[in-house]
Amino acid sequence: MRFCPKLTEIQLQELYTFIKDKETQALEVKRAQAIVLLNNRIGIETISRITTYQRRQIFELRKIYLEKGIDAVRTKRKGKPKKLLTRKQIVEIKKILKEKDAPFRLGYGSKFWTTAILADYIKRTYKVRYRSKTSYYLIFKRVKFTYHKPDRVYEKHDEEKVVKWRKEIKPVIKKWWKDRYTVILAEDEMNLSSQTTFQKVWLPEGEYPRVEVSNTKKSKSIYGFLNIKTGEEHAFVASWQNMYITKEMLIKIKKIYPNKKILLLWDGPGWHKGSEVVNFIKQDGNIRVIYFPSYSPEENPQEHIWNSGREYVTHNNFIPNVEKTADDFVEYLNRTKFPYKLLGYSANS
Fold first, then answer.
1. What is the mean pLDDT of each run of 10 residues along the chain (349 residues)?
2. Counting Cβ atoms within 10 Å, is residue 184 exposed (0-12), middle (13-18) or buried (19+)?
3. Does 3.30.420.10 match the CATH number of domain 159-335?
4. Is the model's pTM score more than 0.70?
5. Which of 39, 78, 308, 314 has its CA 20 to 30 A from that of 90?
6. Are residues 243 and 275 in contact, defined by beta-carbon separation less than 8 angstroms?
């Protein structure tokens, strides 16, 4: 099967919202579903059976969507939609949207606007209720709001320290970025278990996906090193995470880059600072280590790669053999390029 570049989270959310909208016509839903299923790497034959579209039509739908946005899947309707809010009311709503912490002050218990909060506010204030969520999205767009999924913030996360770290480290990255004899690697580890993880899929109404799950839990560790300059991933399966295994992983990396200096960025668990690792780095002499700030996984681009691997290999899959799945997971990562940014630098820079 031919795979395409992944849609962005904003594009996917737009399609999901469009599909769930009660005013979206059946034909429009089918078009949007075809695009989502293709993005989720469902087999073309399966998509064709679900939507009745031919292979060429499926890829053409996706191509047009990327060019024109959601209008590409809409059916042209005659006439203009009725405007329920007056121009004066729209101006008033735009003003309240821009006020800091407005939802909280209005008694909603949240500092952030959501579609539901905006809909309730308009209903209570102006006695107006739109049938389609799209109308509320358009109001948000008028004040240049964009959709965001809230990031997780750790209790011990210190944003001031993170800002200081970025300021101190960015010149270092800039210096070594220009040195063609230096490799910049971002490293992290993850645990892959036989426990099935789930992700939404879209199917015709009345059909329900079933995924077999394992009753036992086995796990493997995976070490990942992202080459920031090239986007190449170097992932390895391990039985666990400790300083001895971490040293073995560094030896493997040195074999990949035998004549290069390495600028290695990772976080600070004990197995990264153990004597075996510290002594190896000291004896090698060509590895410089920079630690990411504590409780700030969002700074490490390698963290994002795990999500991509899970989506492609493990989500919605029964895992009878965690060893084979770990090998498949690593094989996918190592053949895929990931141009994630580190302090503004990436393979696309």
1. 64 82 80 88 84 87 85 69 76 87 74 79 86 79 68 64 92 92 94 53 46 54 94 92 94 95 94 94 96 87 79 47 79 86 81
2. buried
3. yes
4. no
5. 78
6. yes
